[in-house]
Structure formats: structure tokens, C-alpha cells
Amino acid sequence: MEQQNDKQQIVAVRKNGDGDIVELQLSSGQVVGYKEAQQMAKNDQIDNVNVFKGRDGDEHLRSNPDGRTDNNLDQLPTF
Prior knowledge:
The chain is mainly beta. The protein contains 1 helix and 5 strands, in the order βββαββ.
């Protein structure tokens, strides 16, 4: 059930030494920084993710809840 649209998908992530996601690889092969990915999500350019304000007051990127854990950003392959 592949969606046919022009939105990018996040296919892999790069984490720093603390395990925080710092870069994301999109289905086009483009690599974007975390803040850029947040802006793209706000602009509805990336599929299946959203930006929310955490308890720490900062904005965070997360995959849309769908009952699956295998497509959560932390579970994606690294590059």
C-alpha cells in the first residue's frame, strides 16, 4: 500500500555520540540536518512525520503514530 505523492520519506538517520538524531537521509538520497527536516515536516514535504513541542519546551521530530515501532525514527537504519 505505497502512497503515491511527491513527499519525501525518511529512510535512514545519523546519530551523534549521545544517540541523538542529527541528520536524516531522505528517499531522494538527500541528507538534511535535524532542524531542516523539522522545517520540511512543517511544510508538509516529508511523509509520516510531525513536529511537536516536548516537555523541555523544544520542538522535536517524530514519526506519526501508527501502532508500529519498526518505522520509528530511532529504529531506522543508520548511515
